[in-house]
């Protein structure tokens, strides 16, 4: 709740009482009694509230170019040259929704709009592609939630230098895991119900005893609310 006033997104209606504000999981400015949302959280009233900073990517991202993927009308509620703050309902702005056991998970993506200039022989841009994935989880019968940000930018070249840890995901052609689809054939189109053989492994772990734990894995088309759970609880 220790937010400067230029990052405070109003919570509740005008003139909300401090007691009511705190009861809804929001924050109160001690000087102005202004009620505002905490930052980088999934709220009790079902909203994403998070900030994306200019320095969140290399090269730096322009906050003014950021929108929610799938709904370009979902813009930041606060935007400065240094950061953009988003606030939108967890079930709005084209979010993906899926349920695992008694937990409902909402996934949204923020992307940068690429500004291009038309030239005689093509197009030119100085913008770098940027994507940020945001996830909120709500347990059944409870408004208590956990949420975290996941960077989802284009992967850098594989690193084999000492101390660097990488993760590799490959799709095998059958259960023998001896032949894999090349990157030139990804995405792979498969019939619904057909088994998918995935191999996830650590690349150049700094210690031989390092292990990778996978809690769940999902697959979904970009323009659909349907979701397939590939792995649940490992």
If you had to describe this structure to a student in words, what would you say it looks like?
3% of the residues lie in helices and 36% in strands. The protein is built from one helix and 17 strands. The chain has one helix at 18-23; strands at 27-28, 35-36, 41-42, 47-53, 66-68, 78-79, 83-89, 96-100, 103-112, 117-119, 122-124, 131-139, 145-151, 166-172, 197-203, 216-219, 228-232. The chain is globular and about 65 Å long.
Summarize this structure as a short list of keywords or feature phrases.
1 helix; mainly beta; globular; transmembrane helix; 234 residues; four-stranded antiparallel sheet
Ordered list of secondary-structure elements with their pairings:
Blueprint: H1 18-23, E1 27-28, E2 35-36, E3 41-42, E4 47-53, E5 66-68, E6 78-79, E7 83-89, E8 96-100, E9 103-112, E10 117-119, E11 122-124, E12 131-139, E13 145-151, E14 166-172, E15 197-203, E16 216-219, E17 228-232
Antiparallel strand pairs: 1-2, 3-4, 4-7, 5-9, 6-7, 8-9, 9-12, 10-11, 12-13, 14-15, 16-17
Pfam family, one: ZP-N
Domain P-type: 1-39
Domain ZP: 41-234
Give a summary of the structure in a few sentences.
With about 230 residues, the protein is mostly beta strands. It has one helix and 17 strands.
Q: Find the count of extended strands (DSSP E, 2+ residues).
A: 17
What order do the helices and strands follow?
HEEEEEEEEEEEEEEEEE
Tally of separate helices: 1
Uncertain regions spanning at least 5 consecutive residues: 151-161
Query: Averaging pLDDT over every residue, what do you get?
Result: 79
The computed structural class is mainly beta
Overall helicity = under 10%
End-to-end separation: 35 Å
Shape: globular
Bin the strand percentage.
35-45%
Biggest sheet, open or closed, and with what strands and sense? 5 strands, antiparallel
The gyration radius over C-alpha positions equals 21 Å
């Amino acid at each position: 709740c220790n937010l400067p006033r230029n990052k405070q997104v109003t919570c509740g209606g005008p003139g909300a009482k401090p007691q009511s504000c705190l009861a809804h999981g929001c924050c109160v400015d001690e000087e102005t009694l202004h009620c505002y949302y905490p930052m980088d959280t999934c709220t009790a009233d079902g909203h994403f509230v998070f900030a994306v900073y200019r320095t969140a990517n290399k090269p730096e991202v322009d906050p003014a170019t950021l929108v929610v993927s799938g709904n370009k009308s979902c813009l930041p509620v606060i935007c400065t040259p240094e950061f953009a703050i988003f606030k939108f309902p967890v079930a709005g702005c084209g979010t993906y929704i899926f349920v695992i056991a008694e937990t409902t998970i909402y996934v949204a993506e923020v992307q940068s709009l690429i500004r291009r200039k038309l030239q005689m022989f093509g197009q030119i841009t100085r913008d770098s592609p940027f994507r940020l994935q945001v996830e909120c989880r709500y347990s059944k019968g409870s408004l208590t939630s956990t949420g975290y940000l996941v960077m989802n930018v284009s992967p850098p070249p594989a690193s084999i230098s000492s101390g660097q840890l990488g993760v590799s995901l490959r799709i095998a052609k059958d259960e023998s895991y001896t032949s894999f689809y090349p990157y030139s054939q990804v995405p792979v189109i498969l019939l619904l119900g057909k088994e998918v053989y995935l191999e996830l492994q650590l690349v150049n772990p700094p210690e031989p005893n390092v292990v990778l734990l996978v809690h769940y894995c999902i697959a979904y088309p970009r323009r659909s609310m349907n979701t397939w759970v590939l792995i649940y609880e490992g």
